[in-house]
Fold these 3 entries.
Entry 1:
Amino acid sequence: MSNQSDDISARLLDQAQSLAQSLAHQARQAGLLLAAIDAGPRTAAIRAIATSLRASTDVIVRANQLDLEHAKINQLAGPMVKRLALDADKINAMADAVEEIADQPDPIGLVLESHTRRDGLKIEKIRVPIGSVLFCYESRPNVTTDAAALCLRSGNAVILRGGKEARHTNAAIALIIAAALKSRDLPEHAVQIVASTDRELLYALLVQDSFIDLVIPRGGESLIRAVVQHATMPVLKHFTGNCHIYIDQHAPDLAQVVDVIINSKTSYPGGAVCNAVEHVLIHKSQLAMLEPICKALSAKHVEIRGDERVKSIVPEVIAAVQSDWDEEYLAFIVGIKIVDSIDDAIAHINHHGSHHTDAILSTDAGAIRAFTRKVDSASIMVNASTRLADGGEYGLGAEIGISTDKLHARGPMGANDMCTYKWVVTGSGHVR
């Protein structure tokens, strides 16, 4: 019986490896073709996706209902169910996001730098597609259309591997994207949506570095760490969003401080997004703000975990433990800590934060300058909500993710960030 089981496992592994190689090779070939196609057909295909999304609303909603039924059976967590669920309004918003990408200037072929040497040799640095991308993500069906549109906008072929939670919804969207590509004579494998959610297939894809140039994981930390562990090509990571707000000794008025904190924590249901604030640091001179802040958070049903000084002033808060300061709660929970100086706040953020998004609330130019220079994060907010760390809010249109890496992109990633560059050197018989 054991030998038979081993034989079945070996056959399944062989099938996964064969399918992965086929998908990766097709993506490579499509990427080479796509890089040479002008903006017009790519833009038209993106617009066709938006049009079809609206026209196919009923079909997509029916497919989504199947996924929601499975989510209920499998007891999927509430925040993930909210991300998964689609209705007519959400589908229309997906189409709007795709159209915003279609409206963006085409990034391909832009001359980033140019100079001509004294001997007439012209040297140009030109933006080009990365090539072929593997994108792994969970739960949100809108990510499927965002990623497809962004990759078409930037001239990249993409393999989209969504989570099992959205299997039926993604299958319906895959038909829409395939029809849009065909209608504009674009390579049929420019966007491939993987139907299988088998982890072995993902692992097999992650070693196709001969054909896949980059992998972008977007989802829970366990998914990202698995991708980092197994990938043989570069990984553009989006790790945890342990975001902070520091209330400086020169803080704005209390109303503004409370508004920013409440928006940063509670503007998304359950607080389960990577740009929600997880920890608030309060300068010791601003203790008068502590109770009003706690009262406002409690009114929004946010659980507060405070250090010893916080708990001595507001006894009803839960005592924080050391591990709290490293936690991305992804829930209506916030940690609050009193700090003695801005330098202490900066040191705490750089040690415990995830280099995603951190904010300072201050009216002092020197404090703001110190914070923005010294905090090592992809986005620094000054007197603004951490929830504004978003591609759409930055004017990038939809984003393919928010990178906590420093290379090759950092922060919200739009179409420009899905590109690299090449050097084009033009001479007239020049030799060295």
Entry 2:
Amino acid sequence: MICDLAMRPSLALLAPLALVACSHTDPIARFTEAKAAYAAEDYAAAREKVLSALSADADNRDMVLLLVHANLALGDGDGAQAALARLANDALPAIDRNELSAEAALLRGQTQEMEQALGTDQSPVAWRLRGEAALARGDGTTALHDFQQGMAAGFDFRLAWDTARMLIDGDDIDGAERAWAVMRQAGPDRLDTLMTAGLLAERSADMDKAKAAYSRASQRFAARPEPWLALADLADRMDDR
């Protein structure tokens, strides 16, 4: 429908109805857009779209779950926990609820609550969260141990990413490349995979390869600042040589 309020006089009485029709939120359409934005790793847009969808369908379980995940991806622990609270009476699997609650607690700096939520969970996600908590308190040795435990337990993309970053920082390039291989297997075109490729290329002094990786990331994820900042930093350092 084209919302043109510059109507002929004979249609003037229909203007209020046109305004209502133009402002109506289609929750299914907004949710579809939110899922597409999340898949494209534009988490801010995903949150905006799913909040719009929820304004018209407040009790939709799948929409609330997407809001939880978008908030976690944006580092908003408070928002994630508030969204989880909306699922208090939902039959969400206990391990999923506990891991989501644990990550939200970690983002709020509440590591004790995180540990309570995880309990004896030995999954890759649980080990990743424990490792991230160790890093936050400056305990790199425990963090590396936790990440390695998680990698041995199974697959989690973000765990492989955390492991690769930590090993790059520790100049263990061989180990980082093994973690990156896990990332490539599951998400060859994800932003973090491409950015890690650039970092590894830089550590190998292959600046052209690094630039190519960051450029590809900027083309696929134009709304994300990370590849653009990496390209600018790389250009500055190459100019200084």
Entry 3:
Amino acid sequence: MIGKQVLQQPLFSMINLEAFIPAGHVVRRIDRVLDLSFLNQITADLYDSSNGRPSIDPELFFRMQILKTLQGIGSDRKLCSEIQVNLAYRWFCQLSIEDTIPHHSSMTRIRDRLGEEVFCFVFEQILEQCHGAGLVPGEKVLVDATHIEANASIGSMEEREESDTKPLEPRFERYHDFREGKKKRKLSNKTHVSTTDPDSTMVTHRRLVSRLAHKVHYTADAYKRVILDCHVTTGARHAGQILPIRLQHLLDHLSLPLSQVTADKAYGRGPTYGFLKRNKIRPYIPLLKNDLSIKKYSSKEFRYNKDQDQFTCPAGHILLPYQEPSDGLRRFRIVGGHCKYCQRRDQCLPEGYKHRARFIYFHPHQKEIDNVRRRMKTAYFKKKLTERSWKIEGLFAEAKENHGLRRAHLRGRAKVQIQVYLIAMVQNLKRLATSYLFALCWVLFQVKLALQTSLKWVVGKELRHTQKIQI
């Protein structure tokens, strides 16, 4: 006999949502370590306690945003529709089956009301939890940056107003020919700006067409890959300029005992090495340009006189500063035509330069640069670079594939920063939840081991007692 399912709504029902959530579900693991009890206190000043209707609970808002980032949901509208039909999502947001889901338009208003500072505070509170769980030794850190595509089209770029532009460099002066139609139109961050997202800038990557983007800078602990700092800048900002600023933030704001920094060659600049030396931090950062030829770096035969700020060549001639310093790099050159009649000209000047005067480049951080060049050849230095590649680049891959770091959902640097804070929160919460799971398994293993040891001792004692009776 074939059965038939008939839907009959009960007159009264008592539903326990937690009973429907599997024990290993990701929202259950995240809820176990998520503590947002401090939110009402820090957001109380943003609301009028004596006027108006009750607002949406800030903790509910943050739970919804964390859920959105955790599951890679692209918009607030879709988030609200998913919570409406998903029991696990309702349980995580602490909503009963009868509760009304907040309207998606309220998410935008609450986000603007809270601002970047509140999201930063929540991120730091979760980071403090990770520190309390022993996941953040804070001695060895990894640094890297990646682009997040802006929520704007490159077609939104328009010419900057003349009153807003700075004097153009000589290479941009010919832009007016493009503007008048004499040549093909050419876009540049110097001459154009996006009207949709002015904080984004045009970037061009190999094998990819030009696009508008922001740049996300991560600093992660090398032990459990907990994210210590996440900062958003324009897409054209050089990562090497941001590194000293963000490390100083960690030293001052979080008081971390930094002793080692690992990054790729994009950060290999003299000022970076100088900053790390002043703060007694050992760098594992390869040189951006490891050119050992005499055209770039001075050889050991040239002696530098610090008091007179000049070099002396092996033949005894003086090299004086010849150009203004560029990014700390200075050029010294022999003047007076001594190289033309010098007997060491063939050994000193390479082919193609024998009719010119000898010049060398000198950096104020030359000693640190030479030290890094020497350490780059060691096996341990190469091992640290390999470790960096899978640890922090793995964080970016995880964030882009699962949590929405590939493209910005909102516009403006501040709102992109909020999105990155949420992504970093979720990644840290996942590691915190895993650590608690490992700790629980370790405790259960120790209990099991103790019980086995006690059982063996009891069985052995009974066996010895039985043998004595038989004797």
